[in-house]
Amino acid sequence: MTYNPQSGTNWPAGLETGTSFAGIIAAFNDIRVDRGETPKEYPENFGGVISAIQDLLDLGNVTMSEFPPNWELTDDGNGNITGGAFSFTPRDGHLWFDTRTGRLMVWDTNAYYQTNGADGLTAVSANQPTREVEGALWFNNLTQTLYIYYSNTWNVALSVNPVSLPALTLSTDTQTYYGTVNPLLVNVSQFTPATSADRNQSVLNRWIIQAVRELDQAVVDLDAEAIAPAAASAPSSPTEGDLYFNTTDLNLYVYNTISGTAAWRHSINPTNFSDDRLKSKDGQLDGALDKLDGINAFYYYENDLAKSLGFRNTQRQLGLSAQELSAVLPEVVSLAAFDRELDPETGEFKSRSEKKYLTVDYEKLSAFSLQALKELDDKVDHKADQIDLDVLTQELLAKINATGKLTETKLEDLADYIGDVDNYASKVDLNETNELIEELQKRIDSVDNKEIDLSALATKESVSTSIEEVKDSLINLHKSSEIYVDQRIELVKELIPPIDEVASKENVKKDIDRLQKKIKDQKFLSQKGGDIFGRFEIKNSDVELPTFDFSATASDSQKALRFKSNTGDETVVDFGTTESFWEYAWEFTAKEDFCWNGPSGKVFSIDHSGAACTKLIIGQFSENNERGRVVHNHVDVGERLHAYQTTFEGIRAALANSEDFETFKQKATRYLKEV
């Protein structure tokens, strides 16, 4: 199929591409070549298309360089530039910003022309320019004449008549302003030229330099004066705002008028006082020790923000947090002095930066510290007053009553659990029962260990041997004539074992079956394993220890758990460690689906073909809150891929439907903004 425009129109290599990614990239290289740029190699995938689009957008910008695009310099072989020529003729309308002159140029027919008309450099030559715009300037360097182009011709703007700027006469207004009208020049000499000829720019320049020197000396002299004189007594003739440092009490004072009365006042917190006659008390400070729980002293260094505000202490410091104190003791927290200014509308201080930087009045903290020490002293000396005792008594009674009710409830529960005591065995019965239980436990342990002692029971061989021995004895006794019949009978009785002491195989089997039934009924679990019936409810009394522990050896964790899949096939799933280092694995062989199901159904799944999910979010985790998981700066991968796909489809459509580069650029930019 042939497309119009066909890829490769300007870049022949593009003719070999089809409708794949390579065809899109070939179309971009066609545009690059058409605009005087060299083609580039891009990966034939979405990444290559994105890079080509970004480069193509850059092509829409004006070329900025010392020389025009495609201009190749020529030299004499020794590095000396002799000229140049275009390797590729720019198209009409191409823009180029000349970084040497700071002018924007446009190509028209056969040359670049300045786009901003007459606002250009003055042409300097012996011959007039052949092509110009209204307002252009041309200086004839032979006749020293400046021309301006208007009404389609060059007109003389200025002939050769040089003027000396230093000797340029000052205007009357300038002379009047500096000579008589300006009375503010109190620290420098007045500008008073001796003669009319001296009233020029050169004399004024010299006077300005002299005035700056005199002003600089005045500043030096002012710095030498003591801003706050130090003495044992105050100056005798102060003015409003004067400072004075008293060397006796080591305080700084300012002369200030308050309510019509002028006086020397402390410059540091002049409004602080402690006289009871000046105070209307508003209650006692209680709970100082409780407030201390919300205050923490700490070491700190001034951070970058503090340095940006002018603080320069690099040492380790000790202090408190104004924000913490504000929560428990707001009376000692105020706006920091460096961020405080008076609001003319309210007459109160406000934040100059609107950041509301805070400071702590450590002097006021002394009252708080004193109260906290008193409360601590009361606790140490056990000086609780009657009110405290009453409160404690009420609390104790309440706890006793609550404990009594709880005990009564527990006793009732216990009574219900025990039932009628008449149904229970007596002490004698219990003793006999305990003996039987102990005997049964021994027999259970013996059976559990597979070591049942049958040595006390007669075996088939021993019984046969005894019978043979009895038979031999009878024959011998019968043959003996020295022993009477009665004696032989007694001897025979002695040799025959009591029938009660001889156990048959049937008796042994019944005892074993009876014991196994008791073990099964009691649901005993052997140390070597067995079947479990019913359910377990685990109550872990130590959260520091695992409920199920497979960590004795590495092999103990292999196939730690096994599950039967919900299917007619004989398939199972194992979980545990494997023979590979650091590996834990779910081992399965069929169509098992390991998934996470929420209220709305399945949200994540893994089977033999891989992982799948309804929504994939990438971001930074924070600690969970009461609403569950917290993810910051997250990206929804599905939404982002959908946006990319939509953008690529839009760019592909724009490339197919645009008739020129500007139209394509506008459409592509519109789609890229959506990403």
Name a few traits of the molecule:
Arc Repressor Mutant, subunit A; flat; 4-stranded mixed beta sheet; 20% strand; alpha+beta; 28 strands; 675 residues
Describe the structure.
With 675 residues, this protein is α+β, with helices and mostly antiparallel strands. The radius of gyration is 54 Å and the shape is flat. Among the domains are: 53 residues, no CATH class; 99 residues, Arc Repressor Mutant, subunit A (Orthogonal Bundle); 89 residues, no CATH class. Helix 1 packs parallel to helix 2 and helix 11 runs antiparallel to helix 12. The model has no long low-confidence stretch (mean pLDDT 75). Helix content is 34%, strand content 20%.
**C-alpha-based Rg, rounded:** 54 Å
Q: What is the overall pLDDT average?
A: 75
Could you say what the CATH architecture of the domain at 285-383 is? Orthogonal Bundle
- The low-pLDDT segments are none
Structural class: alpha+beta
Task: Write down the CATH class of the domain at 285-383.
Answer: Mainly Alpha
Q: What is the CATH third-level topology name of the domain at 285-383?
A: Arc Repressor Mutant, subunit A
Helix content: 25-40%
> What percentage of the residues does DSSP assign to strands (E)?
15-25%
Characterize the overall form: flat
Distance between the termini: 32 Å
In oligomeric terms, what are we looking at? single chain
The count of strands amounts to: 28
Number of discrete helical segments? 15
Going across the biggest sheet, name each strand in turn.
1-4-5-6
Reported for the largest beta sheet, the result is: 4 strands, mixed
